[in-house]
Design a protein that fits this description.
Blueprint lengths: L1 H20 L3 H8 L6 E6 L1 H9 L7 H9 E9 L3 H14 L5 E8 L2 E9 L5 E10 L4 E11 L1 H10 L8
Antiparallel strand pairs: 1-2, 2-6, 3-4, 4-5, 5-6
């Protein structure tokens, strides 16, 4: 009985460590802002994303719909005040973890700026996309954190929406 109890405890500890090791960026950032009520995180399920893509009046390309089907999760972190402070805090965390997250594309125009970061699996596929977006006019910050099977076409489509020139991808 002791061996069984010990085995269960070891398995539980291993699963907990594994779960913490695969934590997405939004979760890590929210841990840093644990007591901060100015920062809010919303998780959007793949089913909800699929429903949004089916709504009348919403124009989404077929490639974008296919990309949405490949996503596992979407987390949106917002700060409606002190946007620059939170943007810098998030960027420092990404830079601190530069072995995991790689800077991909950036944009900067008329009071808004942002950077795309990606995380690749060992096989080279992109499994996480982070869009760090700051609006100096509204003093806000938004992080969009997507996980799943993310292809370059999807990243380029999002980047194009924000005014990034994708020729230098």
């Amino acid at each position: 009985m002791r061996r069984l109890t010990c085995l269960i405890a070891v398995m539980f500890a291993a699963m907990t460590m594994l779960a913490q090791g695969t934590q997405d960026f939004a979760s890590r950032f929210m841990q840093m802002c644990d007591e901060d009520t100015a920062v809010v995180c919303v998780t959007v399920s793949p089913k909800m994303m699929e429903q949004i893509s089916r709504q009348n009046g919403v124009e989404i390309s077929e490639n974008m719909v296919q990309a949405i089907h490949k996503l596992k999760s979407a987390r949106i972190v917002t700060a409606t005040s002190n946007g620059d402070m939170y943007y810098n805090k998030a960027e420092k965390l990404l830079i601190k973890n530069s072995r995991r997250f790689h800077r991909n594309k950036s944009y900067n125009s008329q009071g808004v700026h942002g950077t795309f970061y990606t995380r690749q699996a060992k096989n080279g596929n992109t499994v996480e996309l982070i869009l760090l977006h700051g609006d100096t006019r509204g003093n806000t910050m938004v992080i969009v954190n997507l996980t799943g099977d993310i292809d370059k076409e999807f990243i380029n489509s999002l980047a194009k929406h924000f005014g990034v020139k994708t020729a230098a991808a």
